[in-house]
Design brief:
homodimer; Phosphorylase Kinase, domain 1; D-amino Acid Aminotransferase, Chain A, domain 1; six-stranded antiparallel sheet; five-stranded antiparallel sheet; 33% strand; binds adenosine-5'-diphosphate; binds magnesium ion; purine biosynthesis (chains A, B)
């Protein structure tokens, strides 16, 4: 009999473990976009994102970022610290793309003169709307201290990842983070992968992320493999 | 021959005067909603909003708020200081209504546990999107100092107007402000009226603002007249 997940999201399943402080995250191949309107599968995405996320958490850990990742359990599973996820998505942007390009009327690919940080209300029913510090306070989504820590940590992560990726000829366009509380401490949670970041090849501008799925650009699995290869040197074989 | 306005907006026309530091604002009866999709006329709105705005600017002036209003010229015209309007709309909210109620999924009329301040990009083509401090900086819409001053001033205005209106049995639900530069100084500009605020009768909850037009509630002109009467005691006769 297969174990029931505690929670099944759009990209991952979360399982309890014997230890209440630890959870098992299982990465699926399911892909969704536009708030669940577009649905599909990206072959091996779960395996690739499990590896890529593990790599990024370890990299960030080396730079002093506190995160939930403990260790990799299998191809599609990682053990993480149990978090009470704050319903706030933190987005950092270096280049205008996606919803920001639309919002401010800028062409996709235009460099932002200053790094842009955004908060979104993690609420599928509402379509994850953009919110600001006042909304977070009024809704009681996070304390002012937590908002400050999330903003500072997100900008620090931008510096760490941006510098690392540049060496691999990957441009970090933007990315989304989730944070949560573990025994009162705010930790980086969820995943960091081509599902939650935009990566463009520095030389060709080729998109190596979920936009290939969102916009039907083809070679979706190949893009995720290429990211893993650039990051770790691992040649992924199906 | 009628003089050509420098600029004609959705609710007002702006005329030059002999003095480059002063402009004439002419209040029209035109009413628009939903970013110009709904159009109509509210009889005498121009006259009423000219009076109501003049009243509010004078009230705010007495409380130390720096604004563009100089004096009333005619039924529909006021003389103001020339501003370079910053393309940022500043919204203050006390009760969830309109787009905020939609954004955060709250019922209209629910009291916000904390005052909410929002910035919108004043850009009709983009539908005046919600933006945050980072967007303002990246777009170069205002300096950090100006953002701070606008926020502080808007919250102070909320206190002043809220207290005054409460005495008149009007609940200040939310309102929109525009600021601009006059000789390097940041002044409150535009208008303060039932077009740009939500006022609800404190006892009955009746809406006395542009929502009567937006939502086809009837008695639109009467609501504007009632606001003028409550504020100033003036019984407006057509
Ligand atoms: N360490 C953790 N503890 C508890 N929940 C977590 C942790 N890391 C991520 N989650 C949550 O797991 C859920 C499943 O992930 P995902 O499939 O991406 O969900 P979603 O459909 O909400 O994007 C998400 O709600 C995410 O916030
Ligand atoms: N003191 C001022 N100096 C210059 N422009 C002003 C001043 N006060 C308001 N304005 C601008 O006058 C324009 C006309 O007003 P309105 O009809 O409300 O325009 P809109 O259609 O942009 O809402 C607006 O762009 C507003 O920002
Ligand atoms: Mg997710
Ligand atoms: Mg206007």
């Amino acid at each position: 009999m297969e174990k029931q997940p505690l929670y099944e999201g759009k990209a991952k399943k979360i399982y309890a473990t014997d230890n209440a402080d630890e959870l098992l995250v299982y990465y699926k191949d399911d892909a969704t976009a536009f708030n669940g309107i577009k649905r599909g599968t990206i072959l091996n995405k779960g395996v690739l994102n499990n590896k890529i996320s593990a790599f990024f958490f370890e990299l960030l850990g080396k730079h002093g970022i506190k995160h939930h990742y403990i260790r990799t359990i299998s191809d599609r599973e990682m053990l993480v610290k149990t978090l009470k996820i704050l319903p706030v998505e933190v987005v950092v942007r270096n280049i205008a793309a996606g919803s920001l390009a639309k919002r401010i009327g800028w062409e996709e690919g235009k460099k932002l003169p200053t790094t842009v940080l955004e908060f979104y209300y993690k609420n599928d029913e509402l379509g994850d709307p953009l919110i600001n510090d006042y909304h977070i306070k009024a809704l009681g989504l996070a304390t002012e201290d937590q908002v400050k820590t999330m903003a500072e940590t997100a900008l620090k992560i931008n510096d760490i990842l941006g510098a690392y990726l540049k060496e691999k000829n990957l441009e970090l366009i933007d990315f989304k983070l989730e944070f949560g509380l573990h025994k009162g401490e705010l930790l980086l949670g969820d995943e960091i992968s081509p599902d939650t970041c935009r990566f463009w090849d520095s030389r060709t501008g080729e998109k190596l992320d979920k936009d290939r799925f969102r916009r039907d650009l083809g070679n979706v699995e190949e893009a995720y493999k290429e990211v893993l290869y650039r990051l770790t040197g691992e040649v992924f074989a199906d």
